[in-house]
Write a structure and sequence with these properties.
mainly alpha, Tetracycline Repressor, domain 2, 0% strand, elongated
Amino acid sequence: MTGVTPEDARIAALAAGHFHEHGITATGVDALSRAAGISKRTLYQRFGSKDGLIAAAYESLDLPVFQMFTQAVEAQTDDPRAQLEAFFAQLEPLIRSPGFRGCPFTNASAELADPLHPAHAVVRRHKERIRRWLLSRARAAGASNPEQLSRQLMLVFAGVQSQALLERSARPARDACDLVRALIDAAITPGR
């Protein structure tokens, strides 16, 4: 969030937490302004509208969530194939955490019916950032069609979070790891 004041960033992050915990529609501006310790008027002055606040909230999550998924993996190994596998292996502990509510970006996209809502652009940008990270690892690992592999891995990434939420189980994360290994095996020629 470039050009954002620390106070705006604080309010956006607070709103993101409320939206993810309670839902966007169920979270009113009154509750958000109370939680932020500011008036509704100040909230509207800072963000223009609830829609502006929603977009800012998800913008505040973009880089931290991306880094949550990628930094530990990059620190763990330099091997691109191992990074791809580790990316998915870390999902099981996340899904097992008591506060797991699925992907905040996917949840927001599903809840916001208006396809022109400004938060949809933020969600698409976030998902594309993750896909590009997967793509760079697929290329470096020698995938014959890295674009296709990155799209397939994004389907697994989205699917495992949704299915784990539905099942209230970490089993989809374990199944996803097996599927990811099979996709990588099929995409990478041995010896490359």
